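Task: sequence design from structure.
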């Protein structure tokens, strides 16, 4: 899990650093972290409630399928392919 996280996190932060003008970099990172940690908190609350209803195994299956579907849809977007 840590290795997979590193394979995502390092390139995404590198892209933000390279594409953001230096005077705005601190603000962009602050907003990025705010959105990321806000999404963590919201998803933990939501997923915990849903796991109680449908079960953890079924929830992981649903989330995995959703991730594959979203990845497939994103691959159809030229802007996602070009990055």
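Answer:
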């Amino acid at each position: 899990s840590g290795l997979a996280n590193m394979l995502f996190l390092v390139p995404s932060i590198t892209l933000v650093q390279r594409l953001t003008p230096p005077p705005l970099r601190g603000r962009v990172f602050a907003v990025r972290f705010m959105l990321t940690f806000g999404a963590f908190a919201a998803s933990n609350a939501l997923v915990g409630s849903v796991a109680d209803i449908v079960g953890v195994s079924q929830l992981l299956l649903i989330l995995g399928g959703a991730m594959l579907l979203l990845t497939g849809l994103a691959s159809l977007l030229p802007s996602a392919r070009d990055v």
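Residues 26 and 83 are 23 Å apart (CA to CA).
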